[in-house]
Amino acid sequence: MSVNDDGQLSSSDSFWEVGRYMRTVKRCDNGYQLCNHLRKLIEERNEIEKKYAAMLTEWTKKWNNFLDKGPEYGTTLGAWKGVLTEADGVAELHNAMAEKMMDDVHTKIKFWQKENYHKSMMHFKETKEFEDNFRKAQKPWAKRLAKVVATKKDYHVACKTEKSTANQENNSRADSSVSQEQLKKLQDKLKKCQQEVENTREKYTAALNDLNSYNAKYIEDMTEVYKRSQDFEQKRIDFFKKIFFQLHACLDLSVESRFSQIYTNLHSTIGNVDPNKDLKWWSSTHGVDMGMNWPAFEEYSPELQSISKRAKSNLGSADGGIMITSIKHSREDSYGSYSEQPSAPPPQQQQQQPQNYKTQSSTNSYASAPRNDMDRFYVTDFASPVPREFVCVWTLKSMLRARSESPDGENPFGDGDMYDENEEGEEPPSAGWMVRALYDYVRAEDDELEFKAGDVFLQVALEDEMGWCRGKKGEDIGFYPKNYVERI
């Protein structure tokens, strides 16, 4: 260490300089922050492992769904599944790795950090102790150094003044214009300056000797505090080394027996692929080795006929149709007996629970019919509960629609008019009537008109025998039950 001519300390980066111990003191704070950073590192790796495991799991789910519905089969399908099983196994291991890092490593860092760094109001207790001890050890030496700096400055000033006075006295002796009295004054001043130089030199030398004599004590005291600081830092580094080894144990899957077993199983699964076995299975399931119910002669049975509906229906059956047997057409009786009962009751009537005709065959007749030569309907193989009146109404409504769609209004079911005149004898105007919906109506078939309560639309045709009208709502035209609307 040296002091320049201006009395200032020379630039030095040595630990022994005044205040330079603060870097060592700050190392204690840095150790606490490094614990935080290491915990953050482990938390981020934990998130990466979890996301990777989640992505693998989602990937296997997607491809398992494909394989469950896809065209692959047999032992080759097993190989596909084996690849997905490997991904599930790896995902499980990475989830376990993430949990282990948090439980075995992250938790230990947090605990060790709490045990070794004690937070005070503004600083850590350990940091404050190191700073106070370093300052205490350096303070006596710093005082001596300050005295050295001051005495050196005084000495250099005295030397400067003495040199200036000597130059003046020398010049005065050569100058004849300077009186003897002035020359004597300069000579007296020069003697005083020389004495001052001598005095300041002695003080400077004494201060420097005192400083140097204290260097050993200064080194000893500072070294003692520094050693404690080193021991504290060594404890942190040793702990970090142990933590890194534990982190390595969590990350190293090469020593995990389950990891190697995953790929042993995958190799075995792929080796189980047998083309001959797969092709034989295909032949027996979809190929030439399948059994066959070869066609045989069947006697005609007039008792059973299958009638399928033109439009989509709410009735669920195996083939989408209704089986009707022993039909006797008597238009006047069957239609007339049901003309006063609308086929689609209002919503309050639709809440009744219908009977279930899914598994039984029964003969359904109209309870209100006055004659015995009614149509008899045998309904079989319904996939959902069907009310008795629905079958009759649906059949008659289909007949009416078929007629309305026939060219020139021809009746496709035989002679006779299936429409009666309006009970009021009123013919519809060319533009039709405006009606307002009383209830919501949801179409059951494509040719029906759907509306909400309060909707206003146009009725374009008279009511038929079954209580169905034809209306137009916007661009939609279709059938609807009369008792769902009122004329405006």
UniProtKB/TrEMBL annotation:
What membrane topology term does the record carry?
A: Peripheral membrane protein
Ranges for the SH3 domain? 430-488
- Keyword set for this entry? Coiled coil, SH3 domain
Where composition is biased (Polar residues), the residues are 356-367
Its Gene Ontology molecular function terms?
Answer: phospholipid binding
UniProt region (Disordered), positions on chain: 333-370, 404-429
Query: What is the annotated localization of this protein?
Result: Endomembrane system
Q: Which residues, by range, are in coiled-coil regions?
A: 176-217
Q: Give me the Gene Ontology terms describing cellular component.
A: endosome; plasma membrane
Compositionally biased tracts (Acidic residues): 417-427
A Gene Ontology biological process in which this protein takes part is: plasma membrane tubulation
Limits of the F-BAR domain? 9-278
- Main localization (coarse): membrane
UniProt-recorded name of the protein: Protein kinase C and casein kinase substrate in neurons protein 3-like isoform X3
